[in-house]
Amino acid sequence: MKVVLLTGSHPRHLFLARTLHQAGLLDGLLIEQREQFVPKPPPHLNQTDHDNFIRHFHDRDEAEQKFFGNSSDVSLGVPVLKVEKNELNSETTKKWIAAQKADVVITYGVHKISNDMLEAFRFHSWNIHGGLSPWFRGNITLFWPFYFLKP
Hints:
The chain is α/β, with parallel strands linked by helices. It contains 5 helices and 5 strands, in the order βαβαβαβαβα.
């Protein structure tokens, strides 16, 4: 069975890629370059919320580095395609995925895959994510609860 992972560029995303590879379950890797890992606080916050916002994202960055390691190392010996958000559902990406001849495609930490992209292939797919669904939908369900100060 050939497995291709479509994932983000943050430490937790690449940890999954390394884990699948170590288990012999990774045959291709698409990495979407994600947003800045430590965002700037919104301007409307009071001082306490501003300080907590900064502390939370600093602590998250520190924890991801501690538990998941270096997010830049993707030398796994499998085909790798790096894309920006606007390239995720492109013809180039479709062709790359098709060339991998995957039996299973796993998505974790990428933006929404278009229906056109999903319908173009004959594979099983599995979308995994963390977060507080259904209250915070989308691809950064772990981010929004803290951004809106509702952890």
